[in-house]
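Ticket #4471: structure export looks truncated?
Reporter: QA, pipeline team
Priority: medium

Steps to reproduce: submit the single chain below to the structure queue and open the exported record.
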Amino acid sequence: MDEHASGFSTWPEDGDKQVLYGDLASQVEGLLSGETDPVANLANAAAAIYHSLPNLNWAGFYLLRGTELVLGPFQGKPACVRIPVGKGVCGTAAEQRRSVVVLDVHAFPGHIACDSASESELVVPLIRDGTLLGVLDLDSPRAARFDVHDQAGCEALVAIIVRHLGPASPV
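Actual output as written to the record:
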């Protein structure tokens, strides 16, 4: 199983997860501080997340364009380019404007399989001032990889990322 360059083989206990997400949040804050280009910030955030969290095979962003999500900066294998809002895990999170944790993507109705190795998924919407900008999408080759601690950690990361996308930028 490819655990990419993270150096982790398993997730630590829940308390340690909170520490790791806190450390990652500090790293992301440092990476994005002072930069105003949204693409550069999304690219650095995707790379930091992908290389810091274990057992991911994809980490990146889909950006809202009209009624669909369009592929943005990411790390991992090539991915689906366009996802209609309301379709798949990403489209569901966008439509409902809430995070979605899927323990088994094969059991999720309408799952869009961009990478057949993916077994579980976490999607967090990017919302600024009530406006949906897109979603953060994380895929794992391990079933049940994500839990409430991952959701909370990624929601905190998204809050930092959204703050650094520029005041008027639609991304």
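Status: closed, not a bug. The export was complete when the record was re-opened. Leaving a note from the reviewer for reference: The CA atoms of residues 94 and 105 lie 17 Å apart.
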